[in-house]
Amino acid sequence: MIGSLGLKLARFAVVLSVFALWEVLSRTGMVNPRLLPSASDTIAMLGQLLQRASVRSDLAVTASEVAVAFVLAVPCGALIGFAIAENRYFAEVAKPLLFFAFSIPKSIFLPMFILVFGVGFSQKVGFAFFSTIFIVIMSTTVAVDSVKTEYLTVARSYGATTAQTAFRVYLPSMLPVLLETVRISMIFNLTGVLLAEMYASRDGIGHQIATWGENFQMEQLLAGVLMIAIIAMTFNELVRWVETRCSHWRT
Amino acid sequence: MQPLANVTRLQPASRAGSIQIKNVGQVFKTSTQSVEALSDVSLDVKPGKFVVLVGPSGCGKSTLLMMLAGLRKQTSGTILINGAPIVAPDPDRIGVVFQEPSLFPWLTAEENVEFPLTLRGVDKAERRRKAQEALLLVGLDGFAKRHPHELSGGMKQRVSIARGLVQDPPVLLMDEPFAALDEQTRMTMGDELLRIWAATGKTVVFVTHSLTEAVYLADEVVVMSARPGRIVDHLTVTLPRPRTYEMLSGDAFGAMRDRIWRHIRKSA
Lengths: 251, 268
Prior knowledge:
The structure holds two protein chains of two kinds. Chain A has a single domain (about 40-245), classed as MetI-like fold (Orthogonal Bundle), CATH 1.10.3720.10. Chain A has ten helices and no strands. Chain A has helices at about 5-25, 40-50, 55-85, 90-105, 110-115, 120-145, 150-155, 160-200, 205-215, 220-245. The two termini of chain A are about 20 Å apart. Chain B has helices spanning about 60-70, 110-120, 125-135, 155-165, 185-200, 210-215, 250-265, and strands at about 20-30, 35-45, 50-55, 75-80, 85, 95, 170-175, 205, 220-225, 230-235.
């Protein structure tokens, strides 16, 4: 077995060499620096951008859209998923349909969201909600199915009420899958908001990044990409950390 | 295999329950047909007895046990435990140990044992104390903080037994509890169960496929036939207690096991 420290060092080395390659390609002119500004310049630009009030307010707008869409989509999806999983007839009817719906690229519906909601906050939230809810529904049905009947029989034989069964059997049993759902749905959610912002918007960091791209401001564009990547990875790792703490028993 | 010479009653048989099963029948109805799973089953179990139900697959012995547990309703007849009918699960009167250990993997051994008490809102100190006692009784006092995945199959079933006993119910129902264990663990667990039973004096109803296990453990063996399940023999095991490994090869043991086997072969 390879030591976990060794693995971490190897991973770090990979990341470092990507950045080093980026720096070298740009500095030596092997790739036109106007097309690919150097890594160090991009990171410096990232620092500058974070100082700018306009960028910060864009980030705030995006964050609030993401938060609202997330807070709406996850519980709604979870409830629908639960209802489907717990009702056999519902499940038989709905499950294949959900798979069909899930296979459609959500982005083609974006123009319709603009027609219905106009360009603004509700368009972003609406589209992100739509992008997210299917994966939440599907994952929740999987989570419910992961609750073993034996657990429910045990709870019943010891006289558990419906509420006790929900909170003491369903919830802890589903928790690892649910956390995974939260993590994956955030990826869909963030993608939805950014896509909606880049497509048609007046503010938000996605809009800003699209604008930088159109104006050929490569340094800003790449700094923006780095920023989003760091934010997304941080959230992802945070949930994964909670996941490993809550699902130590899943082996 | 150690003979169980040192079996002592750790505490007086505090509560042992009586069971009366009267003319119980069960019919499963599907859209096209109805299947009679149990037919006119009647059985009296005296307090403190160890009764084993055996029979071929599909004879309804597990179904009958689930009815005793209040987890399934019979189509006809009545079931009384301590004189009162069973209409729903009643943890006050009945503890159940299932075939699958069915412990909650997210809880520690101790928390699993506490589970029935947690459901009833017993306060934490009291829960802890009773769980400790039950774990001590099943010989797992050093493993309270372990999670199920850190325990062996036999240990998991010990936890499961402790959970069944934690509320001190007069009746303990066991649905093929050792079926998933290997032969050696199974023998040890049988001895352990007899020790626990002797210590607590509970009435035990135990379902198994194994004829050897049936004769080895039981005061009385109830033999059931395949569909519709009915009682075809009810024999009293005359072997003295404590039971020992040497008895397995004795004539009396063999004769009883043969008698059960003949019934089963006939109906299978």
